[in-house]
Amino acid sequence: xxxxxxxxxxxxxxxxxxxxxxxxxxxxxxxxxxxxxxxxxxxxxxxxxxxxxxxxxxxxxxxxxxxxxxxxxxxxxxxxxxxxxxxxxxxxxxxxxxxxxxxxxxxxxxxxxxxxxxxxxxxxxxxxxxxxxxxxxxxxxxxxxxxxxxxxxxxxxxxxxxxxxxxxxxxxxxxxxxxxxxxxxxxxxxxxxxxxxxxxxxxxxxxxxxxxxxxxxxxx
Length: 220
Fold this sequence. Notes:
Blueprint: H1 6-14, H2 19-23, H3 25-32, H4 42-54, H5 57-69, H6 80-83, H7 88-102, H8 116-123, H9 128-151, H10 157-165, H11 182-189
Helix pairs in contact: 1-8, 1-10, 3-4, 9-10
GO molecular function: metallochaperone activity; unfolded protein binding
Protein name: Nitrate reductase molybdenum cofactor assembly chaperone
InterPro entries: DMSO/NO3_reduct_chaperone, NO3_reductase_chaperone_NarJ, TorD-like_sf
């Protein structure tokens, strides 16, 4: 049994806006009022759909780039918020890639496995129980991004908060990610196709979770 299509719905809303998204807004709104999983987030998500409807495509695209591509604070790459430029980020991505491959899921060209829309799309293709487990691992970072977007008064905060609401795990605050020199990471892993990010090497053996459990507050 595959995961719930609500993940694919949320993934589409977090992707770079294209004309087909705006054309499909009536279908998105119908699903919003149909799925009980979105009940607690329905009002805020309706506001987000209204935002998409009220803006021109060009304006939406410009605002999207300013929100996500020009600000590392709001980056939708999960591991960037945990590891920064630390080399453990590469190990974590290799671990996640193995999870994708286990279910026969292939990423699109140029996609990194920790990109939140890609991760949500993956959740829609795997059993719901496993999707919930992985979401529980990632929710701490997703909630962190949601708070950053909320502080920036971005409409996209509503979508991130809706993802958090689906999690079986209560999110915990993140620790500050370690920062190492990017030159060291590039020397270790090599550049990606765009020459920007360290390329993943499959020889890495460390198993890294979405969120370092040792950083969680100790239970009382």
